[in-house]
Amino acid sequence: MKKFFSANVIFIALFILTTPKVFSQETEALMLEPTFTLNFSTETKWSYSFGLANRGILIDEIDVNNFSEDVTEHLEINSWVKYSTGEDSNFSIGIRYRFRKSFDSEQENFARILQQYYNENSNIWIGWWHRVRFEQRFSPSINIFRLRYQLGLSRAISKTFDLKLSTEALYSMSSSFKPQPEQRIAFQLAANSIGSWDFYLGPQYRMDNYVRKQRNTLYILTGATLNL
Description:
The chain has one helix spanning 2-23, and strands at 29-41, 46-60, 74-86, 89-99, 110-121, 127-138, 143-156, 161-174, 177-194, 197-208, 215-227. By secondary structure, it is mostly beta strands. The chain has a single domain (2-227), classed as monomeric porin ompg (Porin, Beta Barrel), CATH 2.40.160.40. It has an 11-stranded mixed barrel. The longest helix has 22 residues, at 2-23. The protein starts with a helix and ends with a strand.
Protein backbone atom coordinates (compact mmCIF):
# COMPACT_ATOMS: atom_id res chain seq x y z
CA MET A 1 0.00 0.00 0.00
CA LYS A 2 2.84 2.38 0.86
CA LYS A 3 4.60 1.64 -2.44
CA PHE A 4 1.37 2.21 -4.35
CA PHE A 5 0.86 5.58 -2.65
CA SER A 6 4.48 6.64 -3.28
CA ALA A 7 4.24 5.72 -6.96
CA ASN A 8 1.08 7.79 -7.35
CA VAL A 9 2.72 10.78 -5.66
CA ILE A 10 5.70 10.58 -8.04
CA PHE A 11 3.50 10.31 -11.12
CA ILE A 12 1.21 13.18 -10.10
CA ALA A 13 4.25 15.34 -9.22
CA LEU A 14 5.66 14.72 -12.70
CA PHE A 15 2.33 15.79 -14.16
CA ILE A 16 2.19 19.00 -12.10
CA LEU A 17 5.82 19.99 -12.74
CA THR A 18 5.68 19.35 -16.48
CA THR A 19 2.36 21.04 -17.27
CA PRO A 20 3.32 24.69 -16.63
CA LYS A 21 6.51 24.38 -18.71
CA VAL A 22 4.59 23.05 -21.70
CA PHE A 23 1.70 25.50 -21.55
CA SER A 24 3.89 28.52 -20.78
CA GLN A 25 4.68 28.70 -24.51
CA GLU A 26 2.79 31.40 -26.45
CA THR A 27 -0.56 29.91 -27.46
CA GLU A 28 -2.27 31.32 -30.54
CA ALA A 29 -5.51 29.35 -30.41
CA LEU A 30 -7.69 27.54 -27.90
CA MET A 31 -9.90 24.73 -29.21
CA LEU A 32 -12.55 22.46 -27.71
CA GLU A 33 -12.86 18.95 -29.17
CA PRO A 34 -15.42 16.52 -27.69
CA THR A 35 -15.80 12.99 -29.10
CA PHE A 36 -18.28 10.14 -28.76
CA THR A 37 -17.48 6.52 -29.73
CA LEU A 38 -19.43 3.27 -29.95
CA ASN A 39 -17.30 0.12 -29.63
CA PHE A 40 -18.67 -3.22 -30.84
CA SER A 41 -16.84 -6.36 -29.68
CA THR A 42 -17.29 -9.81 -31.20
CA GLU A 43 -16.35 -13.36 -30.22
CA THR A 44 -13.63 -13.28 -32.87
CA LYS A 45 -10.45 -11.21 -33.13
CA TRP A 46 -12.36 -8.54 -35.04
CA SER A 47 -14.02 -5.49 -33.48
CA TYR A 48 -15.61 -2.32 -34.83
CA SER A 49 -16.17 1.26 -33.76
CA PHE A 50 -18.12 4.28 -34.96
CA GLY A 51 -17.65 7.80 -33.72
CA LEU A 52 -18.57 11.47 -33.86
CA ALA A 53 -16.29 14.41 -33.09
CA ASN A 54 -16.71 18.15 -33.09
CA ARG A 55 -14.10 20.89 -33.03
CA GLY A 56 -14.96 24.38 -31.85
CA ILE A 57 -12.82 27.52 -31.72
CA LEU A 58 -12.68 29.35 -28.40
CA ILE A 59 -9.75 31.69 -29.20
CA ASP A 60 -8.04 32.11 -32.59
CA GLU A 61 -5.17 34.49 -33.36
CA ILE A 62 -3.49 32.44 -36.13
CA ASP A 63 -2.62 33.60 -39.63
CA VAL A 64 -4.04 30.60 -41.49
CA ASN A 65 -2.14 31.45 -44.68
CA ASN A 66 1.08 30.17 -43.09
CA PHE A 67 -0.11 26.63 -42.45
CA SER A 68 -1.48 23.66 -44.37
CA GLU A 69 -3.68 22.50 -41.48
CA ASP A 70 -5.48 25.73 -40.64
CA VAL A 71 -7.53 26.04 -37.50
CA THR A 72 -11.16 25.48 -38.45
CA GLU A 73 -14.32 24.17 -36.87
CA HIS A 74 -15.66 20.87 -38.11
CA LEU A 75 -17.96 17.93 -37.51
CA GLU A 76 -16.38 14.51 -38.02
CA ILE A 77 -17.79 11.03 -38.54
CA ASN A 78 -15.43 8.06 -38.36
CA SER A 79 -15.36 4.28 -38.43
CA TRP A 80 -12.68 1.71 -37.54
CA VAL A 81 -12.16 -2.00 -38.10
CA LYS A 82 -9.71 -3.61 -35.65
CA TYR A 83 -7.95 -6.98 -35.70
CA SER A 84 -6.35 -8.16 -32.44
CA THR A 85 -2.93 -9.75 -32.83
CA GLY A 86 -2.55 -10.42 -29.10
CA GLU A 87 -3.98 -9.51 -25.73
CA ASP A 88 -2.38 -6.05 -25.86
CA SER A 89 -1.81 -5.34 -29.56
CA ASN A 90 -3.85 -4.81 -32.71
CA PHE A 91 -3.89 -3.59 -36.28
CA SER A 92 -6.72 -1.36 -37.48
CA ILE A 93 -7.88 0.59 -40.50
CA GLY A 94 -10.20 3.57 -40.34
CA ILE A 95 -11.85 6.31 -42.33
CA ARG A 96 -12.79 9.81 -41.25
CA TYR A 97 -14.86 12.44 -43.00
CA ARG A 98 -14.80 16.03 -41.80
CA PHE A 99 -17.51 18.55 -42.64
CA ARG A 100 -15.91 22.00 -42.61
CA LYS A 101 -17.78 23.86 -45.34
CA SER A 102 -20.89 24.10 -43.15
CA PHE A 103 -18.90 26.16 -40.62
CA ASP A 104 -16.91 28.22 -43.15
CA SER A 105 -17.93 28.46 -46.81
CA GLU A 106 -14.30 29.03 -47.84
CA GLN A 107 -13.19 25.68 -46.41
CA GLU A 108 -13.34 22.21 -47.97
CA ASN A 109 -14.69 18.96 -46.64
CA PHE A 110 -12.19 16.11 -46.76
CA ALA A 111 -11.78 12.39 -46.19
CA ARG A 112 -8.91 10.70 -44.37
CA ILE A 113 -7.91 7.02 -44.54
CA LEU A 114 -5.85 5.64 -41.63
CA GLN A 115 -3.77 2.53 -40.95
CA GLN A 116 -2.58 1.86 -37.40
CA TYR A 117 -0.62 -0.51 -35.18
CA TYR A 118 -1.13 -0.27 -31.40
CA ASN A 119 0.62 -2.03 -28.53
CA GLU A 120 0.43 -1.58 -24.77
CA ASN A 121 2.11 -3.05 -21.70
CA SER A 122 0.58 -2.85 -18.24
CA ASN A 123 2.26 -3.61 -14.93
CA ILE A 124 1.74 -2.87 -11.26
CA TRP A 125 3.66 0.41 -11.14
CA ILE A 126 3.12 2.04 -14.52
CA GLY A 127 1.72 1.16 -17.93
CA TRP A 128 2.86 2.34 -21.34
CA TRP A 129 1.63 2.18 -24.90
CA HIS A 130 2.80 3.18 -28.34
CA ARG A 131 1.09 3.65 -31.68
CA VAL A 132 2.24 3.95 -35.30
CA ARG A 133 -0.22 5.49 -37.74
CA PHE A 134 -0.21 6.30 -41.46
CA GLU A 135 -2.77 8.76 -42.83
CA GLN A 136 -3.86 9.89 -46.28
CA ARG A 137 -6.04 13.00 -46.54
CA PHE A 138 -7.98 13.70 -49.74
CA SER A 139 -9.76 16.96 -50.57
CA PRO A 140 -10.64 18.75 -53.84
CA SER A 141 -7.59 21.04 -53.75
CA ILE A 142 -4.87 19.16 -51.84
CA ASN A 143 -3.76 15.68 -50.78
CA ILE A 144 -1.68 15.27 -47.61
CA PHE A 145 0.19 12.19 -46.38
CA ARG A 146 1.16 11.94 -42.75
CA LEU A 147 3.20 9.64 -40.49
CA ARG A 148 2.50 9.64 -36.73
CA TYR A 149 4.14 7.99 -33.73
CA GLN A 150 2.71 8.23 -30.20
CA LEU A 151 4.25 7.12 -26.91
CA GLY A 152 2.31 7.27 -23.66
CA LEU A 153 2.42 6.41 -19.96
CA SER A 154 -0.50 5.64 -17.67
CA ARG A 155 -0.84 5.30 -13.93
CA ALA A 156 -3.85 4.11 -11.94
CA ILE A 157 -4.61 6.60 -9.16
CA SER A 158 -7.68 4.67 -7.97
CA LYS A 159 -9.77 1.68 -9.00
CA THR A 160 -11.62 3.86 -11.51
CA PHE A 161 -9.31 6.70 -12.53
CA ASP A 162 -6.06 6.72 -14.51
CA LEU A 163 -3.68 9.58 -15.19
CA LYS A 164 -2.17 9.51 -18.69
CA LEU A 165 0.76 11.39 -20.23
CA SER A 166 1.61 11.11 -23.91
CA THR A 167 3.65 12.68 -26.67
CA GLU A 168 3.21 12.27 -30.40
CA ALA A 169 5.42 13.19 -33.35
CA LEU A 170 3.84 13.86 -36.75
CA TYR A 171 5.33 14.46 -40.19
CA SER A 172 3.12 15.81 -43.00
CA MET A 173 4.01 15.71 -46.70
CA SER A 174 2.34 17.13 -49.80
CA SER A 175 3.26 18.38 -53.26
CA SER A 176 1.72 21.73 -52.25
CA PHE A 177 4.06 22.58 -49.34
CA LYS A 178 7.35 21.67 -47.74
CA PRO A 179 7.34 18.82 -45.19
CA GLN A 180 5.93 19.95 -41.85
CA PRO A 181 6.81 18.33 -38.49
CA GLU A 182 4.53 18.61 -35.51
CA GLN A 183 4.71 17.63 -31.85
CA ARG A 184 1.81 17.02 -29.48
CA ILE A 185 1.84 16.63 -25.71
CA ALA A 186 -1.28 15.53 -23.83
CA PHE A 187 -2.36 15.03 -20.22
CA GLN A 188 -5.59 13.18 -19.49
CA LEU A 189 -7.66 12.01 -16.58
CA ALA A 190 -9.46 8.83 -17.65
CA ALA A 191 -12.38 7.08 -15.95
CA ASN A 192 -12.59 3.44 -16.98
CA SER A 193 -15.34 0.82 -16.82
CA ILE A 194 -18.11 2.91 -15.29
CA GLY A 195 -20.71 0.41 -16.30
CA SER A 196 -20.18 0.11 -20.05
CA TRP A 197 -18.72 3.59 -20.32
CA ASP A 198 -15.22 5.07 -20.47
CA PHE A 199 -14.49 8.79 -20.21
CA TYR A 200 -11.49 11.10 -20.51
CA LEU A 201 -10.74 14.79 -20.11
CA GLY A 202 -7.55 16.79 -20.50
CA PRO A 203 -5.48 19.36 -22.39
CA GLN A 204 -3.38 18.69 -25.47
CA TYR A 205 -0.68 21.11 -26.63
CA ARG A 206 0.22 21.14 -30.33
CA MET A 207 3.36 22.66 -31.82
CA ASP A 208 2.88 22.71 -35.60
CA ASN A 209 5.51 23.33 -38.28
CA TYR A 210 8.09 24.09 -35.60
CA VAL A 211 11.13 24.14 -37.93
CA ARG A 212 9.79 27.09 -39.96
CA LYS A 213 6.83 29.09 -38.67
CA GLN A 214 5.72 27.50 -35.44
CA ARG A 215 2.07 27.54 -34.45
CA ASN A 216 1.08 26.74 -30.86
CA THR A 217 -2.45 25.53 -30.20
CA LEU A 218 -4.08 24.33 -27.00
CA TYR A 219 -6.90 21.79 -27.24
CA ILE A 220 -9.31 20.76 -24.51
CA LEU A 221 -10.11 17.13 -25.33
CA THR A 222 -13.10 15.28 -23.90
CA GLY A 223 -14.36 11.83 -24.80
CA ALA A 224 -17.07 9.32 -23.97
CA THR A 225 -17.00 5.70 -25.17
CA LEU A 226 -19.84 3.18 -24.91
CA ASN A 227 -18.65 -0.43 -25.08
CA LEU A 228 -21.20 -2.89 -26.45
